[in-house]
Design a protein that fits this description.
Order of helices and strands: EHEEHEH
Number of strands: 4
Oligomer: single chain
Number of helices: 3
Strand order of the largest sheet: 2-3-1-4
Largest sheet: 4 strands, antiparallel
Radius of gyration: 27 Å
């Protein structure tokens, strides 16, 4: 099972109860599709970075869950059906085993002579 994060913005014209009802509906979609909800972040009503239609505020919600690829597809379908959802985005979270490790650059072994001359050699060249 993959880990996902879905963020969505709800219209500010909704009451708190209506917004919670929509969130509950969307959480049920995850449960119906045998997904496991890890966490629900409720940021509440906040100012948006730019106007979304005629709205400058929105209710922010984030779902963190595990499941198959059918869950994000079904959530997106449900979000598109609701006029009160202003924006939504689903991301696949990287797990520790899926993350690529950065390769360290190989250091060159020291050669017989150093690349920089000694201080004594530099002083001799300067005097000459």
């Amino acid at each position: 099972m993959r880990q996902y994060e879905t963020g969505f913005l709800l219209s500010p014209q909704l009451t708190e109860e209506e917004a919670e009802a929509i969130v509950q509906q969307m959480a049920e979609v995850i449960a119906q599709r045998q997904g496991q909800m890890a966490k629900v972040d409720k940021w509440g009503k906040r100012r948006t970075a730019y106007p979304l239609g005629k709205y400058h505020d929105a209710y922010y919600y984030f779902f963190h869950y595990e499941g198959g690829p059918d869950i994000p597809a079904e959530l997106a379908r449900k979000f598109r059906q609701l006029d009160t959802v202003l924006r939504h985005l689903t991301l696949v979270k990287e797990t520790q085993q899926n993350m690529r490790r950065k390769k360290k650059p190989k250091s060159k072994p020291p050669t017989g002579e150093t690349a920089a001359p000694d201080a004594a050699e530099a002083a001799e060249k300067k005097e000459a």
